[in-house]
Amino acid sequence: MKLVIIKYNAGNIQSVLYALERIGVEAIVTDDESLIRSADKVIFPGVGEASTAMNYLKERGLDILIKSLTQPVLGICLGMQLMCAYSEENDTSCLGIFDEQVKKFNPDMKEQAELKVPQIGWNNIFDLKTDLFKGLKENSYCYFVHGYYAAKGEHTIATTNYVLPYSAALHRNNFYGVQFHPEKSASVGEQILKNFIQL
Amino acid sequence: MLTKRIIPCLDIRDGRTVKGINFENIRDAGDPVELGAFYAAQGADELVFLDITATIEKRKTLSELVNRISHHINIPFTVGGGISSVEDVSVLLQNGADKISVNTSAFKNPTLIQQLAKEFGSQCVVLAIDTKLEADGDWYVYLNGGRVKTDTKCVEWAKQAVDLGAGEILLTSMNHDGTKQGFALDITATLAGLLPVPVIASGGGGTMEHFVDVFNIAKADAALAASIFHFKEIGIPELKQYLNEKGIVVRI
User: Fold this and answer.
1) Which CATH number goes with the domain that contains B223?
2) Is B250 within the bounds of a domain?
3) Quick check: B20 pLDDT over 50?
4) Do A119 and B2 touch (CB under 8 A)?
5) Among residues of chain A, what percentage have pLDDT more than 70?
6) Chain segment B50-72, per-residue pLDDT in tens
7) CA dihedral defined by A15, B59, B77, A9, rounded to 10 degrees?
8) Which of A151, A155, A175, B8 could covalently link to B229 via disulfide, CB atoms 3.0 to 4.6 Å apart?
9) Are B29 and B35 in contact (CB under 8 A)?
10) Phi/psi at B60 (nearest 5 deg)?
11) Any catalytic annotation for residue A49?
């Protein structure tokens, strides 16, 4: 098993590496094309801002590389959002692997005044599909930190409710994305990472 | 639904937890990693490690500790204490901290919040405020672990800090801290209602009912406590069960 974490300018890479260590999986962090292409599994993490991250990927040709990968790829948080078609965050065209659009949470100031943006904390995921969630109960809790969300669409494989129901996870062909942080989601997150490794 | 969060706080000095902690099921309760892992397994939603190491030379110990914590703990954690620059934060985040908290240094140099938010994102910038209700009926900001009074009102500073990019407010009431008589519901409610970011209430939690009140009445997003967890006066699983029975959404 050769697992690669794509190295770029968007935080939390160490956390993902350590989480994999905890489940007994070694990974390498790299932006080298041949290493990424030859990996069995690829993780595309990310915390940060969409346009800055997309520019960085484009400058290095990583945008084209990621889209062309054929092994299982898991985008996490911003990584997942960048795999969508478009993000409202600074009007950014993204990779377009998933057709879904990324929008800003816009709580109704009367009805939802208590909902803060970004969403920070543990929320439940439901309508779980695919083996990524094998062994997990409906409404398991995962840790989220985000102000933008991917709308629900045909590629949605898990849903979460905050302001509105949105995509907690997406899947198309070999590509998977999760909005939450499995690396910080206690045993539920560890199960999801293990499931990804076994895909 | 997004849950309310329960956050144990561990005070660290020279890489060890302080306060007489007594857990017979932990090999070394003085080890922040062991204690943190214990709380994580008990269902804590996040952890806060507050470094009270006095000397700068010992700061390296902290980054090594943070690295060890992030290897072993599978929930988010915040590191605070003595952080005063972008470089300080960079080292801690590189070693795996999810968030950092700033207090006195940010008050003295508010642009620090802006710099940190720009460099690392608001989601990892927690502004800690120590506040005290004065005889004039207003809550004021205190610095240096509560030793230095300022003339700035808590609400004004919290608003300014959020405008500058603070992503969460960790609010400690000095009037309530250590009393076990309940959280400061009024100032917590004021900030929670006013600010667009989450408010973590701290200081005064002594019974499970106090947690119900801080969530239901004060609308806090999270509640932080130290000694009641360390001394096993309240267990996290029992607390969460109780909150759940009271209709408060928690992760169980």
Assistant:
1) 3.20.20.70
2) no
3) no
4) yes
5) 99
6) 998 766 666 778 899 999 999 99
7) -40
8) B8
9) yes
10) -60, -35
11) no
> Are residues B71 and A21, on separate chains, in Cβ contact within 8 Å?
yes
A189 interfacial to chain B (CB closer than 8 Å): yes
Shortest Cα distance, chain B CAs vs residue A161, angstroms: 6
Give the catalytic positions of B in this structure. 11, 130
Query: Alpha-carbon distance A149 to B179, whole Å?
Result: 41
pLDDT at A47 over 90: no
Q: Is the pTM of this model over 0.90?
A: yes
- Rounded Cα distance between A21 and A15, Å, is 10
Q: Are A118 and B219 inside 8 Å of each other by CB?
A: no
Beta strand extents in chain A (DSSP E only): 3-6, 27-30, 41-44, 73-76, 86-87, 92-93, 101-104, 119-125, 140-146, 148-150, 156-162, 164-172, 175-178
Domain residue spans in chain A? 3-198
Q: Is the pLDDT of residue B103 over 90?
A: yes
Query: Has residue B117 been placed in a domain?
Result: yes
Q: Give A144-164 pLDDT, tens digit per residue.
A: 999 999 999 999 999 999 999
- Identify the three-state secondary structure at position B91: helix
Q: How far apart are CA B51 and CA B100, in angstroms?
A: 11
The answer to whether residue B184 scores a pLDDT higher than 90 is yes
The predicted model gives A12-36 an average pLDDT of: 93
Contacts with B, A 116-155, CB within 8 Å: 116-124, 141, 143-145
Does the beta-carbon distance from A22 to B45 stay under 8 Å? no
Yes or no: say if B215 and B7 are a contact pair by the CB < 8 Å rule.
no
C-beta atoms of A11 and B121 within 8 A: yes
Q: Indicate whether A127 pLDDT > 70.
A: yes
Active-site entry in A49, A59, A77, A142 = A77
| Best residue of A120, A164, A183, A190 to probe chain B, by most B CBs closer than 10 Å | A120
Using a CB–CB cutoff of 8 Å, tell me whether A49 touches chain B: yes
Q: Does residue A183 carry a catalytic annotation?
A: yes
Residues of B in contact with A11 (CB under 8 A): 93, 120-121, 124
Residue B134 Cα, gap to closest chain A Cα (Å): 28
- Within-domain flag for B210: yes
CB pairs under 8 A between A and B: 81
The predicted structure's pLDDT at residue B119: 86
- This model of the complex carries an ipTM of 0.92
Domain count, chain B: 1
Task: Give chain B's mean pLDDT.
Answer: 92
More confident residue, A116 or A85: A85
Does residue B252 fall inside a structural domain?
no
Nearby residues of A57 by Cβ (< 8 Å), 6 or more positions away? A8, A63, A66, A82
What's the domain range around B113? 5-245
Model pLDDT, residue B58: 66
